[in-house]
Amino acid sequence: MLPVTVASGREKGDGVGADAYAVGVDFGTLSGRAVVVRVADGAELGSAVHEYAHGVIEERLPGGGPRLPPDWALQSPEDWRDVLRTAVPEALDAAGVDPADVVGIGTDFTACTVLPAAADGTPLCERHPDRPHAWPKLWKHHAAQPHADRINALAAERGEPWLARYGGKISSEWEWAKGLQVLEEDPETYAAAERWIEAADWIVWQLTGTESRNVCTAGYKGIHQDGSYPSAEFAAALNPGFAGFTGKLGHDLAPLGGRAGRLSAEAAGWTGLPEGVAVAVGNVDAHVTAAAADAVRPGRMVAIMGTSTCHVMASDRLAEVPGMCGVVRDGIVPGLWGYEAGQSGVGDIFGWFAETSVPASYAREADARGMSAHEYLTSLAERQNVGEHGLVALDWHNGNRSVLVDHDLSGVLVGQTLATRPEDVYRALIEATAFGARTIVETFEASGVPVEEFVVAGGLLGNRFLMQVYADVLRRPLSAIGSGQGPALGAAIHAAVAAGAHPDITAAAAAMGKRIPDAFVPDPARADAYDRLYAEYRRLHDHFADGAVLHRLRAIRNEAAR
Ligand SMILES: Nc1ncnc2c1ncn2[C@@H]1O[C@H](COP(=O)(O)OP(=O)(O)O)[C@@H](O)[C@H]1O
Ligand SMILES: O=C(CO)[C@H](O)[C@H](O)COP(=O)(O)O
C-alpha cells in the first residue's frame, strides 16, 4: 500500500473564514447525494441527487451474460464517479456558493461494499467486465453466507479473541466472507486483486489520487481489532490460498475526522471544486450520521432508518453484546468505543410489499389521491387499533443482521385469515421492524451498555405513523435528526474537521449537527398493547432462530433455481 499521511483537524489550521463551506457526499444503495453546508452552523444551502445508472446489479452483469446466482448484489464504480461529476456541481449551483469558499469535501458509503482493484486503484471489473466476481459486491450481497459460517465455526473452535467483538458472529456481508467467496469461486480474479478495498476508501482514492484506509470500515467490516487483522494462520486454515488475504487490505489506518489528502486536479475537474481542498478520511453512512444528529456522546443510539437500519452508539465502556455487528475503538469518534447493530431489511421490506402485493384497486385509489403506495397503505393502517389485524411478522426478509447474524433466515407472517387486507400486512411488517429494533436495544442494555437516548434518522423519518409505532414499541421518547440528509451532512461535518474548521468531530457535531429531542412520545395504552404483541414476536423469533425450517426452504429454493 502507498504511504498515507493523515493529519487530524487540530494539526492543520488551514485557516477557515466565517463563510466557509464543506461538501458532503453520501453514496447510498441506489443513488448518491451531495450537500453544501456552512461550516459555522451546519446550514444546508444546496443539494443534488444522482441515481445510479445501474442501480443494484442483481440479475445480470451490465454487459449481459448468464443470470447471477441468488443473493448476489453488485454495483458499478462508474456510477459512483458519476455522482462526483454530476451531484457535486449541481449541489454547488443549487447552493449559489462560490466553489472558492469550499474548504473540504467528505464522503460516506454503504458498507461493507467492497471491490477487487489493481495496485493503482483500477477496479478489476473495468478490466474484466464479463467476470461477476470482478465487480464490487454491495453490502447486501448475501451469497457468502456459507463462507461466513465457516469463518464463524473456525473462529469459535480456535477461540479467536476478536470474535466476541462481533457479538460472536461475523456477517456474510463483510470483507472476509466476500473475499473468501471470490477466492473459492474465481481464483483468477482473487489473484489479480492486488487490493480488496471498501468503496468508502476507494472513492477517497478517486478524490485524492492516493490510497488510504479508514479505521471504521477496517474495524467493523475487516475484523481489525487491537492493531491487527486475524492472523495468516487463521486465514490459511480457512483455505491455504487465503493465507495472504490481509496483504490486500490496508494496514496504516486513518482516524475519522482526519484528512486523507487533498483534492487532485482530476477530481477538481469532475466536481468543480478547487484543487487542493481537504478530503476527509472515508467513512460509513451510518457512522457519519451520528455526527449529523449531534449524537456522538456516549449513550445516544442513532438508528439510521432507510432501506436497512443501522444502529450506532458511542460508549465509554467495552462490553460483549450478543449478535451486535461490532464494537470498534475510535469507530464512530476518536477516544470512545463505537457500537454497531443493524437490521438488514427495513424500508426494503415495505418496498417489496408495496411493489408486489398491492391490488390494482389500491393502486388506482392511491393514484387518485396523489399518494404513493406507501402513503396510501400507511393511511389505511394507521386507523387500526394495536393488534386489530391479528398478525405478527418476523422482519427477516433480507436476513437477520442482529441479534442472530444469519442472512439465510427469511421473513415470516402468521395469523392471516380470509379477512386479512394489504394494509394489515403492511402494518404488521412495520411493527415487526420495530420489534426487531426493541430486541436490539434490550440486548444492549442486558449486556451492560445503556441506551440513554434513541435518535432516529434516515428516509423513513418521513413516515410519522411508522415513527410513532417505534416510540410505542420501544416505550421511550424518540429524538429525531433535524436534517433530511443525515449521512451527507455527517460527511460534510467530517470534511469541516478535516479542513481544520473545528477542532474535532464532537465540537463540529455540536456546531453543525441537528437533533430534536422528544420528537415522538409513546402513548402508554398503545405501548401496553404492543407489549403483548412483542411477547408473541419474541416467541416466533426464538422458534425460527435456529433456521431449521427457514434454512431448509432456502436450500430447496437454491436447488430449484440451479
Ligand atoms: N412512506 C414510506 N413508508 C415506509 N417506507 C417507505 C416510504 N417511502 C419509501 N419507503 C422505503 O424507504 C426506503 C428508502 O429509504 P431511504 O432512506 O430514502 O434510502 P437509503 O436507505 O437507501 O438511503 C425504500 O426501501 C422504500 O421502500
Ligand atoms: O451496513 C451498513 C452500514 O454499516 C448499511 O446498512 C448499509 O451501508 C446500507 O445502508 P442504507 O440502508 O442506507 O442503504
UniProtKB/TrEMBL annotation:
Residues 302-499 form the Carbohydrate kinase FGGY C-terminal domain. It catalyses: D-ribulose + ATP = D-ribulose 5-phosphate + ADP + H(+); L-ribulose + ATP = L-ribulose 5-phosphate + ADP + H(+). The lineage of its organism: Bacteria, Bacillati, Actinomycetota, Actinomycetes, Streptosporangiales. Gene3D superfamilies: 1.20.58.2240, 3.30.420.40. Keywords: Arabinose catabolism, ATP-binding, Carbohydrate metabolism, Kinase, Nucleotide-binding, Transferase. CDD domains: ASKHA_NBD_FGGY_L-RBK (cd07781). It comes from the Bacteria. Pathway: Carbohydrate degradation; L-arabinose degradation via L-ribulose; D-xylulose 5-phosphate from L-arabinose (bacterial route): step 2/3. It holds the Pfam family FGGY_C. Belongs to the ribulokinase family. One of its GO terms (molecular function) is ribulokinase activity. This is Ribulokinase. Its EC number is 2.7.1.16. The keyword ATP-binding applies.
